[in-house]
Design brief:
7-stranded mixed beta sheet; 18 strands
């Protein structure tokens, strides 16, 4: 076994007994050099699902945070109940005040409600990074991903609050991860706010590796129009990606679109799903 990724938190479940679904994402990642956790979901299912799926959170060496939204970070204190102290890799912007603003409704806070000092007091040792980084041998953090494609954009409803005013959230902290395997790169996405194709191209450029075995996680294609979906599918086909696991913010309609085009290359990365290389 070179790599095993088990989905611990996600909107839906594939295991019929005892696991909990929630809006969010978390994956337990096992490698020959040790285990780590990618995101923590909302904290409602992390402890329960890790026990049911027999994934020992005490074995986790470090935590990786894809971005500072509640549905990927509210479980951090739950993890720290099981493993503390622990290194936490993240962008320094994860604690900015974030809101979802839609016309006709009050602003909805969607950031991390915990203070950095509170999480540090529980044992979180934040290791802030902005650039592409090899965290361990063959395990790469994307760092900030350039927005290059003409069909992928940050959601206009996402805002940051600064000095009493709301501004477009550029989500510079949107991180993804690539793990090098003998079959090619396995890319894990949190929400892919930077765009799934931007992220894939970024990893190809930074690693010098153009073989992508699998991409799984939140694709943010739930908000994609037909132009973006068609362009995304064409590039996935051209890159000969062998497995695409849709999670969280992909949306049911566009998950169906992915399945109809990718057939047996597609799978739902729901709670209990395992990708093994």
């Amino acid at each position: 076994m070179e790599l095993r990724v088990t989905i611990l938190c996600e909107n839906s479940v594939i295991v019929p007994f005892s696991v909990i679904g929630e809006h969010g994402f978390s994956a337990f990642v096992e490698t020959p050099s040790g285990n780590f956790l990618f995101d923590t979901g909302q904290g409602k299912g992390l402890l329960n699902n890790s026990m049911v799926l027999k994934k020992d959170l005490k074995s986790v060496k470090w935590l990786y945070i894809s971005h500072g939204h509640y549905d990927h970070t509210l479980g951090i204190p739950m993890l720290l109940l099981e493993k503390s102290p622990i290194d936490v890799y993240a962008h320094p912007d994860i604690f900015v005040d974030r809101f979802w603003i839609k016309e006709g409704t009050p602003p909805k806070f969607i950031g991390i409600p915990y203070k950095e000092s509170y999480l540090k007091s529980l044992g979180a040792n934040f290791k802030y990074i902005k650039d592409f980084t090899e965290i361990e041998r063959g395990i790469y953090s994307s760092g900030e991903v350039p927005m290059v494609t003409d069909f992928e954009n940050i959601d206009a409803n996402m805002k940051v609050l600064r000095d009493g005013s709301f501004y477009q959230d550029k989500l510079n902290d949107d991180f993804s991860m690539a793990i090098d395997t003998s079959k090619g790169l396995v890319i894990i996405l949190g929400c892919a706010h930077a765009g799934i194709i931007n992220i894939i191209n970024h990893f190809i450029q930074k690693t010098g590796k153009d073989k992508i075995y699998a991409v799984l996680g939140g694709t943010h294609l739930g908000f994609a129009d037909p132009k973006q979906m068609n362009a995304t599918l064409e590039i996935i086909k051209n890159y000969k990606i062998e497995k695409v696991g849709a999670s969280h913010c992909t949306g049911l309609a566009n998950s169906a679109t992915l399945f109809n085009h990718l057939k047996d290359k597609f799978f739902f990365a729901s709670v209990g799903q395992v990708l093994e290389v």
